[in-house]
Known about the structure:
By secondary structure, the chain is α+β, with helices and mostly antiparallel strands. It is about 50% helix and about 10% strand.
Amino acid sequence: MGQILQENGRKGKRGGKECFFRKLAVLAAAVFLFEIFIGNYSSVRSLFFQKTDLTDRMELTWGEAEEGSAAVTSAAGSTADRLTVVIDGLDMRIDNLYFNLEMPANEAISISISLTDEGNRYLYPLPEMEAVGRYPSSLYTNLYPYGKVHSLTIELEPAEGGGLVLSDGAESGKSAESGDFSGQGSFALLGLEANVFRPFDLVLPRMLLLFGIGAFCLFMRENSGVFCVRFDPESRRQNLITAGCLVLFFLFGLMLVLADQACVESPWEHQQQYRQLASAILEGHVWVGRQPELMELENPYDTSYLLAGNIPYLADYAYYEGNYYVYFGIVPELLFYLPCLAVTGKSFPNFLAVYFCFSGFALSVFGLYREAVRRWFSGIPYVFYLTAAGVTLTFGSFIYLTARPDMYHVPLMAANMFTAAGIWLWLCGLNRERGRKLLFGAGSACMALVAGCRPQMLAFSVIALPLFWGRFFGGNGQKKREKALEAAVLLVPYAIVAAGIMYYNALRFSSPFDFGAAYSLTNNDMTHRGTNLSRILYGLCAFFFLPARYEAKFPFLMTNGLENEYMGKMVSEFLFGGILASQSVCWCLALFPVCRRKISGGKELSGILMCALGASLVIGAFDANAAGILQRYTADAALGIALASCLMMLFLFHSARGVSFRYGLIFLRAALLQHALYAFLIVFASGDSVNLKNYGRILYYGAKRLFQM
Length: 709
């Protein structure tokens, strides 16, 4: 009988695998059909169109671009970079247009179309389209006029940014009669056709993406075999999978930091502050410039007055008693920039600093959740461990930092790396007997080094209270001497790091407790900023609860303008939504008050959740009051929210059974898809001028193709 059951079991497993692979095959077929009939809807639609060549009917005019647009100067010295095309007397149905453009692969041309038709006697504009040299499909556009089109007015000009490759202007400006429509800028319009057959364009990345989403939904079904594989830290197979996932995140981070060429090249002088500080330290001082004449002004920190009076100053440097200093944390300087300059004589690039910190952060996050699962969620399905690590690393705040790897993001990413590493090492020490004190000391050293990156993120050190309270103040049988020794191991690294930072502060600003942020020459005079409850409350609402703003145009995720009624100077740039509101994975925290007494880790785990959330709120309040509301500042508080959300998720699925597990999986699937979409869109969102649309066009417009039919 036992032999029969074993054979049946093996048959059942084989049958289950065969069924799963059949479903994958059906999914692949469905994706292919979707790509043909939906992804290439415009091609199917144009199968029986009758082409009309409009080239000979075009009236061309070259002129200067409007103020504020990208100016292109040809080799001949002309600035005529906007081409206007007018076609009158059409009286025909136009369902699509094809622009025969000649331009460099990295060039993007903005095309604005206005028309009159049977329903509109006066010209009305259509949404702007963009043609990219790398992607021939972008040269086509569908039109949906009211009946027949009577006239067309089309304006073409190079898009902003991108480092335009300019053509020789000696042959530019020829008449339409010559048949050469070469422009006086960086592109040439060779012809225009209407009602053309649009070639099929099978977008492989879109097909892979759709297949991946479908496979994910199949993979995360309730009866999927992945939930039968329990987390086992000793499993070689699981450790190999974990290592593979970690390598994928290393590669993912490298792709992100290399995507934006503006940040890779970093041509701006104020982005070289760490390099300048390294040179200054090697010369024996910590100031990076001197301008004592500013001290003669009544308020040298009123930059609007400096600009109005054409008084030169170094923006975003700390100015104190006639000298310029770098107020950004010293730890990244000592970790990357100073050793590189001392050893090689070359400056260390900012994008590499962000990448190494992101890689260290990824390693620490995987390690942190590994120890958390061992301590509180033993026996949970292994897939939830990977989910927790992946969700934390793809939080929008961290993706934003990595996709725009400038100098401002170096200390932010470093602080998150050290915070995650510190908690990880503390948990390692608690989970092991051997080498415990060394792990405690290493964890405290990492947490203390946060003060040399982003001092406000020291608030996360409060997580030590629930972790170690029971160990030092509970009846665990430890001897007093042992407790005192462990306490010293935890506290001494803080004291050593604090002494070094205080000495550095005293060298710069004559006080060991002054980090110098108040002396920054920026658009915000922080020496007079003070503290204001209204500003703090508005900042908390924005940082955590502001909904993400979406529009029906790629990249869909738009900036929030942060309009408010604060009757004072509210320093703000933009946000892509608050941390809690924009990422639905965080919504499981709503169950925390209900589940607090039932949490499997008892006071220890619930205390960590409360401390992580509390520290995030304190950091958000500090940033809103002392600095302002900026997208990058969400990364100060994001780790606490991410940690609390993922620990809560692990607890819920560790405890869930039957119906609650089923409904929990439904929520998790939807939340993870939304989370991934938000992370994807924030890479391409255009909140400021340094974005992929301007300086990573091949990647940007390649992503845009995923959503075009």
